[in-house]
Design brief:
By secondary structure, the chain is of the alpha/beta class. It contains 19 helices and 20 strands. The protein is elongated, with a radius of gyration of 29 Å.
Length: 458
């Protein structure tokens, strides 16, 4: 800490504080008004500001507000001769590092200043440690410190250098595409394209055209010849997301492409050689689909050369604080907001929550909280209603009944059915929007609707 700005309309106060702080080894600037303070701040950054609340040209809290918005790391100590609990709370909510009521003892100010300086140094050291920690516990955009994610990192590094097909499994929102991108980035194919497609988002005809391309005139809207994604990913990586949603007839064509390393455009007769490393992902158990004859067994074995499972967030709670802080930094920067931390109570709620939407849901919650927050720290009030109540270990409607035949499967079915009903209600019956709200594919939504239609015809 080197430069300190004193903002006070009393000359004697500015002089006394200046003498004391210069003796402590600081460079001191002094301003008698908000306007003069703005001029001095425009000439270069300061490390600490001591400002009175009552100034001739306005409220000193406005200095606090603007400084914290522009430079959250600047220490601000508020001084006032008209102290009140409400004003103290207002200053702290705006990010004041300390609050002093005049008249105060000089030794008290020294003590407060040193305490604030020491705390800020610890915070800066903590940020450096976090950055080092992050570099050791991240792989590209994937972040994790849990043993489960350490195993994922090890597997990614092991398979990246091969050309083997990888099948990534895990619930929606766990980061399967990020893992696929990490495999590509660490592979010898990193300078070639990484191309992705969601197999559940397109109709069968569109999916075939997207994957294999088409010739001019092959169908009504085929006004020109178009390359498919297999060709676009030549010498690179093709990522097939939600591969379990692939229609049966397309599964045959996909299997042939994987076996022969050749594709044929829709409406074409020539076979085209393709050199593609395939990575597939699914949030549905393909073994179950194989047993139900909804997914070809031979294609499953072609895809499942190297299986890689991404655990849900509720099974790696150690990762939640690191992920939450990562998203906090990201969205605070994007929104230019001085939200620097997550309150301890809010972090407790985050780590206790079950996260059915996994990392994607956590990201959305932090984005929402940063957008709504008006203080330097995310408070519990900015979290969604589901996170504002401390999590219990037993469902509300099952407390006291575990020893009397509580049916876990039925309880889970009821929760799934309620979420489905609420999503359709919020989407006003628009199934594509309801699928987006639930974080599932349209095909999965159709399956859920048919599954619960008998229970709830509405």
């Amino acid at each position: 800490m080197k430069r300190i700005l004193i903002v006070d309309d009393e000359p004697s106060m500015r002089e006394m504080l200046g003498i004391m702080l210069r003796k402590e080894g600081f460079e001191v600037l002094a301003a008698e008004s908000r306007a003069r303070a703005a001029t001095l701040l425009g000439q270069g950054p300061v490390d600490m500001i001591l400002t009175d609340v009552k100034l001739p040209d306005g409220d000193g809290l406005e200095i606090l507000r603007h400084v914290k918005a522009a430079s959250p790391e600047t220490v601000v100590i508020v001084m006032t001769a008209f102290g009140s609990h409400e004003m103290n709370v207002a200053a702290m909510r705006l990010g004041a590092d300390a609050y002093l009521t005049k008249p105060f003892d000089i030794e008290e100010l020294k003590l407060v200043a040193r305490r604030v300086i020491d705390r800020r140094k610890l915070e800066e050291e903590n940020l450096l440690l976090k950055a080092e920690f992050h570099s050791r516990h991240a792989l590209g955009s994937i972040i994790g410190v849990s043993s489960a994610m350490a195993a994922v990192f090890t597997m990614v590094r092991s398979v990246a250098g091969t050309n083997s097909t990888v099948l990534i499994t895990g619930e929606s929102g766990t980061g399967k595409e990020l893992v696929a991108k990490a495999i590509h980035t660490l592979s010898p194919r990193k300078d070639a394209p990484f191309v992705s497609i969601n197999c559940g988002a397109l109709t069968e005809t569109l999916l075939e055209s997207e994957l294999f391309g088409h010739m001019k005139g092959a169908f009504t809207d085929a006004h020109q010849t178009k390359k498919g994604l297999f060709e676009a990913a030549h010498r690179g990586t093709l990522f097939l997301d939600e591969v379990g949603e692939t229609p049966p007839s397309m599964q045959v064509k996909l299997l042939r492409a994987l076996q022969d390393r050749k594709i044929r455009r829709v409406g074409g007769t020539d076979e085209i050689d393709v050199d593609v490393r395939l990575v597939a992902a699914t949030n549905r158990p393909l073994t179950t689909l194989v047993r139900e004859r909804r997914f070809r067994e031979d294609l499953f074995y072609r895809l499942n050369v190297i299986p890689l499972h991404i655990p849900p967030l509720r099974e790696r709670r150690d990762d939640i604080p690191l992920l939450a802080e990562h998203f906090l930094i990201q969205f605070s920067s994007e929104m230019a907001k001085a939200v620097a931390k997550i309150s301890s109570e809010a972090m407790t709620r985050l780590t206790q929550y079950a996260w059915p939407g996994n990392v994607r849901e956590l990201e959305n919650v932090i984005e929402r909280a940063v957008a709504l927050e008006t203080t330097p720290a995310i408070l519990v009030e900015r979290l969604p209603e589901a996170l504002q109540t401390p999590a219990g270990s037993v469902p509300q409607d099952s407390q006291g009944n575990l020893g009397h035949g509580f049916n876990l499967d039925e309880h889970i079915r009821a929760i799934e059915r309620d979420f489905l009903r609420e999503a359709l209600k919020q989407a006003a019956g628009d199934r594509a929007e309801a699928a987006r709200l639930l974080g599932v594919t349209p095909r999965s939504l159709r399956y859920l609707v048919s599954k619960y239609a008998a229970d709830d015809p509405a």
